[in-house]
Protein 1
Amino acid sequence: MKNNKMQVALLGLGTVGTGVYKVLKRQKNEMVQKLGVEIELAKILVRNVEKAKEKVEDPSIITTNWKEILEDDTIDIIVEVMGGIEPARTYILEALRKGKNIVTANKDLIAVDGRILMDTAKENQRDFLYEAAVAGGIPIISPLKQSLYANCIEEVIGIVNGTTNFILTKMAEENMEFEDALKLATELGYAEADPTADIEGLDAARKVAILASIAFNSRVTFQDVYIEGITHITARDIRYAREMGCEIKLLGVARNREEGIEVSVHPMLIDSRHPLASVNDSFNAVFIRGDAVGDAMFYGRGAGELPTASAIVGDIFNVAQNIIMNCTGRIHCTCYKSLPIRKMDDIVSRFFMRMYVDDRPGVLASVTSVFGNNNVSIEQFIQKRKSGDLAELVVITEDVLEHDFNDSLRILKTMSMIKEISSVIRVY
Ligand code: NAP
Ligand code: HSE
């Protein structure tokens, strides 16, 4: 504190940093009323000073020197919105050891190194808050860690990537193919120049690892998550899913089973009556099932300048209150268990499968016997259409062990009567 003002430093002034700057400015007077002290943005760390100068009223607060912030004892709260692993990791650890409190949106870092960051915060009795790291503006970390703490959480399912949800919505509603929908997402600024982390499911996997760790009180890291993206989904898959009363969504799925934690990110057919099925465009939602609360869903903007800043400034507020009440470090890591992560092969799923086969007698019988011989029970088998000498088949399985289904798939791929296996998508 300096002159009864809570001093905050911002690391990064990109999309989120600029949002934080704007919201802090907009909330300045309100905050004095709410907290009893002023929150002052004392320093902003960037690499490119010229670019940053255009965004702030007082350019003297911009610096490229981390030590200037670290060594300033009047700064109590550091907001890390640079992103990436290094130097963010080193800066956060150094700051915590110096007695500073941290607010961050850095899911990449938390999903890999959450344990050391939170342990260091605890050792130093400092706050480490990261509401913005999952689903941007939607309050989900704090509800899971606090409001729902009385529950054993059985399942967390989320649409936690706005770019892919936008793409899938456009494919469904405007019958676009993946590449065209991605192009539109890029033109509208949803997808980044390199969209790999979004479309390959990596961004969602980081978020679901963080959610699973909190929900099940056991550390789950990015490396534990089974990941499939949406690049193989076609407009035809979505059309057929809709004919069956389903939507296709990229879901992060985490379940707490007796045998261990199941954690994955992949596209799924989901019944159109499920609340997640109507989450469209770039919106995010997280659906939770707890043993006391039952079902609960959190919905809103999962990214963007102001929604993300909303979560960050909320965290700054909480830290400031804790500093005033002299109780920082109160909410720390809740991973007091060490549960195993289940192998994907051992879990049970339902599958939708689309394939092209020779259009002649006996083919259906051969396909079903491969499934039957591998313990895969079929719920629906539909011949969709004929095209020349080929027939298009759609199969929906009952709940089956993933390794049984994969064994069938391996055999089907070797059969000359099967010309193409066009899609394999799990069903929620
Ligand atoms: P961004 O637009 O790329 O901004 C990053 C900022 O950090 C830039 O101002 C950059 O400065 C600065 N920076 C990067 N490395 C630095 C370094 N080594 N030293 C000093 N400054 C450095 O990123 P963003 O979209 O705001 O995202 C920031 C964080 O929020 C990430 O962890 C991201 O995952 C997370 N997040 C973002 C969103 C979203 O909607 N964008 C939503 C939720 C969470 P220069 O420009 O000078 O290089
Ligand atoms: N790229 C992410 C999304 C936003 O599309 O949801 C940042 O987490």
Note: Residues 12-17, 45-48, 51, 81-83, 87, 105-107, 132, 136, 303-304, 308 surround NAP (ligand 1) (CB under 6 Å).
Protein 2
Amino acid sequence: MKKMFALLMALVMVLALCSSAAAEDLIKVGFAQVGHESDWRNANTENYKGVFTAENGYELSFVDCDNDNAVQLEAVRSFIEQDLDYIIIAPIETAGWNTVLAEAKDAGIPVIIADRNVDADPSEYTTRVGTDMVKEGETAGLWLAEYMAGAEANILVIEGTVGSSAALGRSEGFNNIAKDHPEWKIIDSQSGDFTQAGGQQVMESFLKSYPGQFNVVVCHNDNEAYGAMDAMDAAGVTYGVDGDVILISYDATKAGLTYTLEGKINCNVECNPIQAAFVKEVIEKLEAGEAVEAFTLVVDEAFVAPGITSQYATTMTAELLAARPY
Ligand code: GZL
């Protein structure tokens, strides 16, 4: 009996040593995520949690920074204090990163900027993975120009989070096209903070300020578009392919593309949230001592409602919707 007990204890000790050794072998990654402001963000978070798993050899320290810059900086500093192996930052805003990036660099911890961008010299961090937000804005503008075919456009814009590279880039890109169209007028542009409540609030304000004066609404993400749709429904303003107002959105999430298939959103410019595998590939290269590119582009496309054909976007179908990964 005593022998059995001793054997059992030895087995428990070996298993404990193996598990701690296994834990020691995991690559420790800190991820300071923007927050949970949108369907896109949630899809992005789920993607990271599904890739950076113990089975894949990682220990993920995930912080939802709730759209709060101070919380995000604090999260990155805590990763540095914990001396993690890698730090991933999806920056809420572009500004304010130089000091903490220098701290991470001094600590010898590689930093990967993911999704959005920072106002810091690329030499201040290891690499960046994300989409081209300026191109997304240009795609929306090019599609609108094709669709309007020279007709007047009186445009209201519901922007994303103030100071975010997603909002700045999409505005820059759209304006790159708008400047070539004197028949267009951007009447107003306010931030809806990438949330449905924000989109509804801004649209309600626009409906009060500019009744009957606009025929295009551009929303920087699907959740803002849902809010704008609720506000326009309540005001009896029609939108979409059979409505008075052309509705353009970004993200092309499953729900956003459902509205696009239904003709309620005329054009939806994708921003692909499935980015974790690209980041994991970068980390694996760094682990192997290999050089990595300064920037890894995550490619996306655009979609339009049935009945619309475009050189810049794919016409939505039920089959396409069923095949969408997020
Ligand atoms: C874009 C991403 C944006 C999405 C929004 O890459 O940063 O933030 O467009 C999300 O849905 O909130």
Note: The two ends are 57 Å apart (CA to CA).
